[in-house]
Amino acid sequence: PYSEFAAGEFQLKTRIFISAVSSELKHIRSLVRDELVKLGFHPEVQEHFGTEDGELKLKLQKKIDQCDGLIHLVGDGYGSEPHEPDIELGRRSYTQYEFLYASTGAK
User: What is the rounded distance in angstroms from the CA atom of residue 40 to the CA atom of residue 54?
Assistant: First the structure.
């Protein structure tokens, strides 16, 4: 996530997590991602990392913590949710969880 700054120097790009229900807004999220890249940001989306070696909520927390901000796209879809409700938040989709988690971290 670096961009060329001056001859041989690099600076960190601002990292932005893009949150959306994939089944409904995947295309829109891709458009937002492409525009952020054009503007010099480093977008993170859930498709960039798998869930095969761990629990998705923990991976989302780590990715969101590494980002400087979050763009949350809202539509009519609910999205998938964990098998067990969150102890603090109750039954929430992963997309709702991304937003609520980022809100508590002042993203």
Answer: 31
Whole-angstrom distance, CA of residue 56 vs CA of residue 98: 11
Pairing of strands 9-12, 2-6: antiparallel
- Which segment of 36-40, 69-73, 80-84 scores lowest on mean pLDDT? 80-84
Biggest distance spanned by C-alpha atoms of the chain: 51
- Whether 36 and 16 have beta carbons less than 8 Å apart is answered as yes
Tokens of 71: 């763009």
pLDDT digits (tens, 9 = 90+) for 3-27: 555 555 555 689 999 999 988 998 9
Helices and strands (DSSP H and E) totals, the chain? 3, 5
Torsion angle of C-alpha atoms 73, 106, 59, 49, degrees rounded to 10:
50
- What single string gives the DSSP state of each residue in 62-79? HHHHHSSEEEE---S---
State residue 9's pLDDT score: 56
End-to-end alpha carbon distance in the chain: 19
